[in-house]
Amino acid sequence: MSSDRRKPYPFDQIEPKWQAIWDERQLFHGPNPCEKGFDSAKPKFYVLDMFPYPSGAGLHVGHPEGYTATDIVARYKRMRGFNVLHPMGWDAFGLPAEQYAIKTGQHPAITTRENVAKFKSQLKRIGFSYDWQREINTTDPPYYKWTQWIFLQIYNSWFNPETNRAEPISTYRGTDPDSVRLAYVADVPVNWCPELGTVLANEEVVDGKSEVGGFPVVRRPMRQWMLRITAYAERLLNELEGLDWPEGIKLLQRNWIGRSEGAEIDFKVDKSDQKIRVFTTRPDTLYGGTFLVIAPEHSLVDLIVTEEQWPAVREYRERAARKSELERADLSKEKTGVFTGAYAINPATNEKIPLWIADYVLLGYGTGAIGGVPAHDERDLEFAKKFDLPIVVVVQPTGDEPALGFTGEGIAINSPIINGLTSAHAKKKITSWLEERGLGKRAINYKLRDWLFSRQRYWGEPFPIVWENGKHRALQEKELPVVPSPLDDYKPTGTGEPPLAKAKEWIRYSDKAIRETNTMPQWAGSCWYYLRFCDPDNDKRFVGEEAERYWMGGDQPGGVDLYVGGTEHAVLHLLYARFWQKVLFDLGYVSKPEPFQRLVNQGIILGEDNQKMSKSRGNIVNPDDVIDQHGADAFRCYEMFMGPLVQMKPWSTRGVEGVARFLARVWRLLMKENQAGEWVLSDKIKEIEASKQQQKLLHATIKKVTEDIESFSFNTAISQMMIFVNAFTNVEMIPLLAMRTFLTLLNPFAPHISSELWERLADFGDARGDVSQQSWPAYDERLLIEDEVEIVIQINGKLRDRVKMPIVATEEELKAVALSNPKVQDRISGKAVRKVIVVPKKLVNIVVI
After folding, report:
1. What does pTM read for this prediction?
2. Residues whose CB is less than 8 angstroms from the CB of residue 122 and which lie 6 or more positions away in sequence, other chains included
3. FRET partner for 704 with CA separation of 20 to 30 A, picked from 336, 416, 522, 658?
């Protein structure tokens, strides 16, 4: 009993009780078609969180923000009569578990299992209504068997430009199918971290060092598996239009894909049979091209560099190899470069122009070479001024801007073939001129590069590929899953070979063939997990056809109805998942071309110091601590009450306390302590009709909460429920039905307290089942209509009283009420009423003398 008295209400008893009940009854399981309990008459709603990487640190308060939002929507949709799919799982492959294995020798699977258990217990403690029967883990062999299977479908396919879709490789009529496969092998420059022993994505390199551990990173060519995502660039771009995504996220994807129209122009290398192809969006500036710059790692460098320049070129290439692509592409950094000693011929002027190498030109973008037009490009101008290269103006602005440094469109000058033409016409004419002479052609270029799909790590999905006589081939489906061999030593080999290269017996597939030892990136498992949630126990197919058609069905191009997660995945994860979905769609394995129809990104929760939460700042807030002190319902409600879901906002302990007091008022509205210190129902609760004003407030609350859930305005929904509770706090009698309706509204936000109070109200009878199984209440618009208005009564312009009057009251009725008002009678007694001024629906002013 003493524990109860110390807390505003017994959340520490209520919450574990209801979590156990939900587990036992499996109330939130959404059966598949043909399963027991499936109701085909109901519409479906698939609401999905971006599933987490289960780190050893567990959750902090930022993680559950999006989870709480989706849980509110899932509970609300169930009450609205939908079949709801609301699953949770674990994106569990990753470098941290492998790093821990290197330090301790503990197998990453053990670390992952412990971390998953911690995360799961924390999520359950918050009361999320996940369908735990559908839980998946990307590191489980029954799961990654199908990740490997999907890779094989990609490997065994090619993109047919005539049909604009993926097709089985068997339909390819060329002589070299490996050259067109959607999964292929190439030697590409990569970010290699010797200490971690793996290739890192550009986003994993910060200031030339690994994001994890801060180890040096160098650029080096390595044999890698690549996925030909560039074949889908146009579809990835165009098919964004049918999706309900924030415009900012769509823009990020468009920019990442980076479509640009222009021309490819061939520059012949002087005194050589080599050519350098350059892509430009401004072929009209060709006459202003006074130098070429190629990427330091370009294959032509070795062929064209002069003996005199070789030492400087070699040293520069070594320096460039220590920089990430993000560093090299930084527009603000000082330009550097080295002359190769070679020259190319400008096809328009026929003049020799010097060939340089510079690290701001990237081999992976365009052709790895650019034409320097310093008069009309800021970067080229900076480069030309630094190295004293010629500058020729070839575009005249139509306004007052100076021509030097002008990057817009104008009139061509100093360009004999196109002089006097506008930039738009000049582009077309010069491109046609180049095409006629075999010197260039119209082209569309994409910033998007093919997806580097290899990692030199242990803790990832092995490739279902073997090598024989220097050639790769796919394993058969019956040989899946390919499970990595356990190792005694997970440390990097130091040679660039993956850790699996140490498993000599495992590598030997046969007398003639060896296994691929690279593993897939962490992205692989998250590219298709939303499909596996539809049918997680299917051992015959990655997802059953009927389950996929149902849960991913509907009239929209995307299958998942609502997808919620952070903006940190705005580009790569979403792009990769869309790519895999489109390949599977083309091959006839899924019914939809897009995975996610509606996307919502939650904002970041900062620490109380307004800084991003981190261990180093010491400002991380653990949800377990908040729940211990205030309860899970208070934690959930505060996460939503902080402000609009999509905005960044700081955590506030005082804010949690305020929301906790609101829930305590809800509890005490319906409960009281008896003399023994036990909580019992308040004797104020009566089976009576709500008053007219109470009915009006109730239906206004139903309307507000309903609309706010639909629009993700959870903070204002909670504000409205606070107004409701305040209005009933001091009344003499509390109408039972109004309270039951209110608990239904509160349930998606605070499921534990609302479930407990609903159960307590069962003493009155007439209530069946759990509150979460009730139908969502509808509001009556008629009860929201204002049929009364407050009328101000004045005498000689001074306020004397206020009265409620029907909104349809006539002027005569308003005069009569005002003149008969006792407070008016007292003040006008013995005086002459000169006139009565009526302002309809507002006031009556009695003028006396």
Report:
1. 0.87
2. 58, 59, 623, 624
3. 658
